[in-house]
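Weekend entry, working from home. Most of the wet-lab plans are on hold until the incubator is repaired, so I used the time to fold the two sequences that have been sitting in the queue since the last round of cloning. Logging both here for the record. First:
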Amino acid sequence: MAASAVMQSILVSSARQNACRTPANRLLPAAVQPFSRRAANFRVRCTAEEDQREPATPTSVSLPSPQPGPSPTPSPKMSTKLTDILAFSGPAPERINGRLAMVGFVAALAVEAAKGQDVLEQIGNGGIPWFVGTSAILTLASLIPFIRGVSVESNSKGFMTSKAELWNGRFAMLGLVALAFTEYVTGGSLV
């Protein structure tokens, strides 16, 4: 078999050298010269020795086809089980918390600007039912696409991507905690 491979490589290289000898590329070494399409139909038939008889199969030397760009890989199927969606490394917890933090941060700043109450006063003066209601509605609205098997990445295009939403949610979580901490330390509302 080793002799067969050596013979094939010798025959192919000699065919390639002869096929590529055009007036334009005679000065180039054989290893650099372009491969001609005329040698693409060159067939090599090789047989093994007596004790290693295998049926002879014709092989053809063909040009390597140009590789197209990487094809888009289909996104892996997302599990629609609620336990997988709400798992610690699942797709829903950070997104839901980020969405709640974005709404909470903007609402806290709006109420501070309108009424002058800090975050702790807002929670103490009837803010808990608003918080629970908003959390329930946003959680259900966020879970419905996940339960249907729609991934967030499939709908993210342009400026508003799924990564941008994650980072905005992370910053809103940090902002809400920083707002509450700053108001606690200063003893009053920020605005």
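Second, folded right after the first finished:
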Amino acid sequence: MSGVSVAEERAEILAAQRNDDSFATLWDELQWRGLVHVSTDPEALSELLEGESFTYYCGFDPTAPSLHLGNLVQLLLLRRLQLKGHKPLGLVGGSTGLIGDPRPTAERTLNSRETVAEWVTRLQGQVTRFLASDGENAVRLVNNLDWTAPLSAIDFLREVGKHFRVGTMLKKDAVAARLNSDEGISYTEFSYQVLQGFDFLELFRQYDCVLQSGGSDQWGNLTSGTDLIRKVEGRSAHAVGTPLITNADGTKFGKSEGNAIWLDPEMCSPYTFYQFWLNQADADVIDRLKVFTFLSRAEIEDYERQVAEEPFKRAAQKRLALEVTTLVHGAAAAQGAIDASEALFGRGDLAALDESTLRGAVSELPQVVLPPTAKFIARPITQLMVEAGLVKSAGEARRAIAQGGVYVNNAAVESEDRALEAADLLHGRFAVLRRGKKTLAGVVAAG
């Protein structure tokens, strides 16, 4: 999209999104896509979604400087409701982020107020990228620090705390898990569900917000809000818990070698992001298309057929990677990731890749790190191949070169004495070694 600003491209992406009118109701579509694991009242929610415009929300705590794939599930659910004409509130928790919801295993490390405030701003910017900011049902950002900070501890305990029963709080899954662990749970994290319940009450009062969504692991926190509204206001409110997405083998989805897949390109490059989706298993890819894309039921069912009949083509994975990378990082970044994938394996020009894309691609490879360019000394290719793990010995490296199977930046190495020169470094820092068709390593001059 040359010549198109980031804001214009984002607007075009949002404008192209649609719910699938082949379903009788939005609730039917949400269930088909696997976006509903638990809810307060399915029949009432289905009617609510088909009725007049209402306000709903999801909360995101700034416990990291970026949202991740689990948050993306919520953002896409918010967007589907917005497309139906309903009004989203994106809550970034400036107060709950100072505490953090209880993890199943250990107490969180508390971040400073300054850090949390910075992360609030960053996450607010990410939330607004996935929801329309104009029109009658434009997204509205809210921060729970606005209504918790003015309250004294005594006021909070009197006005909110008195409505919570300790016995009920102890039964919440996250709390129960921690109570049964060696770590235990602090009063700080134990009180998190009270704060989240208070959020829903305040949004109900201020905006007539009647629905909260979140992950199913947050169900206890979600229902703390619906219970509080019922006790204090005598009104009903709703909650929807999305399933925790796992792979077909039962492992947690959204992790890559132990690291979360972040939405911030500085924390997870578009190339890495694209490769994550491209590498989805056949058993998982159709479910991913349902949750993470706006492809229609008919399109997804066609990809399901292709997976069954021609899995070697990986058409569903390629479409998934393209769709989600474009959604999160834009069309240019998605195309850059595709170009990098092609170029790494000799089907494109590595020198044509921009520095950011090349850096992201090389970061995924085994690497040899050299001194900065200013101190660069030519290194034999055979030595670099050993250091990178492409071969076990210099002798094996020489034989591979003699057989014509070694490349530097996709150019064949023709001499066993060939050395890597400073001039070989793309963007002054990077080179790609390849043995055969698929075995790769990166060479990086330290910055």
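Plan for Monday: verify the second prediction. The chain has a mean pLDDT of 93.
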